[in-house]
Amino acid sequence: MVALAALWFSVRLEGRGLADAGLSLRGAPQSLALGFVAGGAIISAVVGVLGAVGAYRIDGLVPLATGTSRVGLFALAFGALLLVGFREEVRDRGVLFRLLEQSLGTWAALGLSALAFGFSHWKNAGATPWSSLAIALEGGVLLAALYAATRSLWLPIGVHWGWNLFEGPIWGAAVSGHSVEVLLKGTVSGPSWLTGGIFGPEAGIPALVVGGTAGILAVVWMVRRGEVQPGPWVRLRPPADEPALQPGTPSVVPPPTTREPPGA
Q1: Which domain holds residue 134?
Q2: Is the residue at 72 inside a domain?
Q3: pTM of the entire structure?
Q4: Mind listing the pLDDT tens digit for each residue in 191-238?
Q5: Tens digits of per-residue pLDDT, 41-75?
Q6: Residues sharing a CB contact under 8 Å with residue 120, sequence separation 6 or more, in sequence order
Q7: Which residue, of 104, 112, 141, 143, is most buried by count of CB atoms within 10 Å of its CB?
Q8: 38 domain-assigned
Q9: Structural domain count of the chain
């Protein structure tokens, strides 16, 4: 996988391993499962809001072609969407966010990587500048903050995976412009600002509110855990009790202190 190879190469240049970039296997199953539940809950809340206002309804099970196994299709979607979440999190958080953070600090990395994540979907069916910005705000911020807070990729991978699996194969809505219906036949109707139109619920206001709120909570968690790295302009700033040298001012090195030898 290209994204994993890029991550491995970048950490090897730093003399470290994949575990240092967030792919340690210690605690991975628990973090992945927790993220999966959280991602599924977030998008289910969005679908629930749409249902409450009459913009979403369930029309039964998705009709399948003769000889097709629903269990088999769901298992395929289950594994495929895990790989999608893994690939995109390794690329956008493990590589892009991590390298940006090293150069610019956490806040700049969070904003820039979120925008890159959102606009990486701009070629999808029904995509607009608004849908890309919405994904950046509701998904990009959330996933980057979770990675920064835990320094592990498994939690954001799980959130990404659960979000996509519940949105498409389970609830039957479009996933970033892609139709991935397997279980329920869901019908979304209403104005695009509410439902997201062809692109899917992610481009609607309910997703922005619910996902944005989750992102804010993740950012607060990141800050409280002390996982905010300053930008280079802060790292180079002199201590408060030490005035900065003016250009051209020679530095004064104090003479060495002469100490009497013991017993003198």
Answers
A1: 28-231
A2: yes
A3: 0.86
A4: 999 999 999 999 999 999 999 999 999 999 999 999 999 988 776 666
A5: 999 999 999 999 999 999 999 999 888 899 999 99
A6: 88, 92
A7: 143
A8: yes
A9: 1
